[in-house]
Amino acid sequence: MLKQSLQQKLLQKLSPQQIQLMKLLQVPTMELEQRIKEEMEENPALEEGADREEEEEDTLDRETEFEEDKTEKEDDRDDDFNIEDYMQDDDIPSYKLSSNNSSPDDEERSVPISSGRSFQENLMSQLGLAELDDNEIELARTIVGNLDDDGYLRRDLMNIVDDLAFSQNISTSEEELEKVLEIIQDFEPAGVAARDLRECLLIQIRRKKNRTTAIDLAQSILENNFESFTRKHYSRIIKRLDITDDELKAAIEEIVKLNPKPGNSMMETSRNIQHVVPDFLLSVEDSDIKLSLNGRNAPELKVSRSYKDMLQTYADSKTKSKKEKEALMFVKQKIDSAKWFIDAIRQRQHTLLYTMNAIVELQKDYFLSGDETKLRPMILKDVAEKVNLDISTISRVANSKYVQTPYGTFLIKTFFSESLSTDSGEEVSTREVKKILQDAVEGEEKRKPLTDEKLAQLLKEKGYNIARRTVAKYREQLNIPVARLRKEL
Question: Which range of residues forms the domain containing residue 182?
Answer without folding.
Answer: 119-264
